[in-house]
Automatic annotation (TrEMBL):
It comes from Streptomyces koyangensis. Transmembrane segments: none annotated. It comes from the Bacteria. Residues 88-238 form the GAF domain. Gene3D superfamilies: 3.30.450.40, PucR C-terminal helix-turn-helix domain. This is GAF domain-containing protein. Residues 626-645 are annotated as: Disordered.
Length: 645
């Protein structure tokens, strides 16, 4: 029969528990209710109260577990959203390590990633007290992380350094000891069937890990692995896109450079146009060197001389010593404190003709090297074209200068041809004639210096110069040649006359024993005056009247009295010096002098007479030397050179 007062023990004890559970009361409130009910009711209800209390505590634990699980699920979902928004792999790693440590409330968390060489490397650490862990590498199967990767399953240890079930490595143990790691839990980072790494959390005290903690960290690892994989794909896509854009831009610049260089070649522009095009395309200072490492041209931002010298001295030496043959003509790259350098060889007709030197702050990649090599090829074409044009001009000018000097062509025709050959006879003020092995090159150098013209004519070098004879003489004086400069009046007739005068002066220099000297024709004026009248017999009559008997005596008796007298007067009547010069005994010299006095008479020793005798001896010697036939011009072998080339 029901209790009329409503005092059913079961109903009386169940009501407060439901109310507390519905209100979400803490565990302490449930314990307090149990104690109060036990104290307020009689012993006959104690068993019922304890039973209800146990059921209420069990329901409370279930509710708390579900609340915690809901909170953890919310945290994981929120973390998944944040990870999905991250596109940089390093950002994902940092976020996962921080959230793992926070979610499980541990001292430290770290992530190992698999490497190409099958090793594991700790990429990120959160909560560390030093840097001992970061960058540590271990083989798969070594340590707790290696065990997780090898098995593909979660594993934990309560005290890592004292766990004999694990494979230890000295470097890994040293890092763990440095961080004071004890209890460690590790779960795999998996993408599909592949384990790409390990997520680990650790305590600095021994710890036993529950299945719930393992499941929670595994769930986090699943989100992390997917986010990391997506971030790597995104990063790879970004790099690929950037590389494609860079290549497209490089191709665009290469096409633009090719088109610009094509216009330069077709338009006949020179080296400076090419260097400017390379400078704009490569963003580099440009210099062009010839086969002897002499600068031919530079761009608007050419390297400083000291920086260029540093680059050329680096590595294996200057370009001329680097590009030694057809098999050794690859572009050289050099790095110095002044920047990055590239040296591309210039080849003309399979011969090394120089190189293009480029310097910039950024390293040279394959595209810029190819552009530089394209520029070097174009420079080779420009040089070959210039050589061909120069050679053609030389031939034309050589033929013209030959016709001008040999006098076989009408002067009016020569004047018309002068314009087409780029020669101005009216500008010629000096004709320079040179003799010797280097006569042709020396004449060309003099022509370049004075902006004149040169030709190899009749085995001699000839230069027509718009300068004075004195300037021309001084210019070639250091050269290893014999040279005479004669004045010209700017007409074809005066040029020919100056050429004849300079050739005659050249013969006089040789006759005077001044081979290797350079002279102005006016310096030889007295000899020119004397020998210009030699044709009327005046010079021969003077020599015969003065020393003729002595020469007749030598021819008749085979003596050397004329030579003895010449040496005696040359050495200013010093007996000892004369005897040494003739390699005879002094007594022999006295005997010869006595014989000379017997032939010429004692009067030859008087000062005035001695001067006449010495002049007669010198003129006799010069006449003999000048009587030797010289080399006549060979018009068919002349080559002309314009001074500015």
């Amino acid at each position: 029969m029901p209790d009329p007062a409503g005092t059913d023990p079961q109903h009386a004890t169940a009501s407060p528990w439901l109310k507390l559970l519905a209100e979400g009361a803490p565990l302490a409130a449930l314990e307090e209710c149990r104690h109060r009910l036990v104290a307020d009711q009689g012993p006959e209800t104690h068993a019922a109260v304890e039973a209800e209390a146990r059921r209420a505590l069990h329901v409370h634990a279930l509710l708390e577990a579900r609340t915690r699980q809901a909170a953890e699920t919310a945290v994981l979902n929120d973390l998944a959203r944040r990870l999905a928004a991250l596109h940089a792999p390093q950002d994902v790693l940092d976020e996962v390590a921080a959230q793992a440590r926070r979610l499980l409330g541990t001292d430290l968390s770290y992530i190992m990633l698999a490497q190409d060489d099958a090793a594991l490397r700790i990429e990120v650490v959160d909560g560390s007290i030093g840097s001992a862990l970061r960058g540590v590498e271990l083989a798969r199967g070594v340590g707790l992380g290696g065990l997780v990767v090898r098995t593909g399953q979660p594993h934990w240890c309560a005290d890592y350094l004292h766990d004999d079930h694990l494979t230890h490595a000295a470097t890994v143990d040293a890092a763990a000891a440095g961080e004071q790691l004890r209890g460690i839990l590790g779960v795999p980072l998996r993408v599909g069937e592949e384990t790409i790494g390990v997520l680990l959390v650790a305590q600095r005290v021994p710890r036993t890990w529950t299945d719930h903690q393992t499941t929670l960290l595994t769930a986090l690892a699943a989100h992390a692995a997917l986010a990391l994989h997506n971030a790597e794909l995104f990063d790879r896509h970004q790099r690929t896109t950037a590389e494609l854009r860079r290549r497209a831009e490089a191709d665009r610049r290469a096409v633009a450079l090719h088109q610009r260089l094509t216009h330069i070649v077709l338009g006949g522009a020179g080296l400076h146009a090419v260097t400017d095009a390379l400078r704009d395309a490569l963003g580099a200072g440009i210099s062009v060197l010839d086969a002897h490492d002499t600068a031919l041209a530079t761009g608007a931002t050419e390297p400083a001389p000291d920086a260029l010298a540093t680059a050329l001295a680096a590595d294996t030496g200057p370009p001329a010593s680097c590009f030694t043959g057809p098999a050794d003509r690859a572009t050289r790259l050099r790095d110095t404190p002044d920047g990055h350098w590239a040296l591309a060889p210039v080849v003309v007709a399979d011969e090394y003709a120089g190189c293009v030197v480029a310097r910039r702050h950024q390293p040279f990649d394959a595209n810029t090297v190819r552009s530089l090599e394209t520029g070097a090829t174009v420079i080779g074409l420009v040089l070959a074209s210039e050589r061909a044009a120069t050679e053609a001009e030389r031939r034309v000018r050589g033929e013209y200068l030959t016709a001008l000097l040999d006098g076989t062509t009408d002067d009016a025709v020569l004047l018309r041809r002068a314009r087409s050959g780029g020669i101005d006879p009216a500008a010629v003020r000096t004709v320079l004639v040179l003799d010797g092995p280097q006569a042709g090159p020396a004449a060309a150098r003099a022509a370049r210096h004075h902006q004149g013209w040169s030709v190899e004519y009749g085995g001699l070098g000839v230069a027509l110069l718009p300068t004075t004879p004195a300037d021309a003489r001084d210019r070639v004086a250091p050269e290893p040649v014999t040279a005479v400069a004669a004045p010209a009046g700017g007409t074809i007739a005066t040029i020919r006359a100056a050429h004849r005068r300079a050739r005659s002066g050249l013969r006089l220099l040789h006759a005077l024993g001044r081979t290797g000297a350079a002279a102005d024709s006016d310096e030889l004026g007295i000899y020119e005056a004397l020998f210009s009248n030699a044709g009327d017999g005046t010079l021969d009559r003077f020599v015969t009247a003065t020393i003729g008997p002595l020469a007749d005596h030598d021819r008749a008796h085979g003596t050397r009295l004329t030579e003895t007298l010449d040496a005696y007067l040359t050495h200013t009547a010093r007996h000892t010096a004369t005897a040494e010069a003739l390699h005879i005994h002094p007594n022999t010299l006295y005997q010869r002098l006595a014989k000379i006095s017997a032939v010429l008479g004692e009067g030859w020793k008087e000062p005035g007479r001695a001067v006449e005798v010495q002049w007669a001896l010198r003129l006799h010697r010069l006449s003999h030397r000048l009587a030797t036939p010289g080399t006549e011009p060979d018009p068919g072998t002349a080559k002309g050179v314009r001074g500015e080339e």
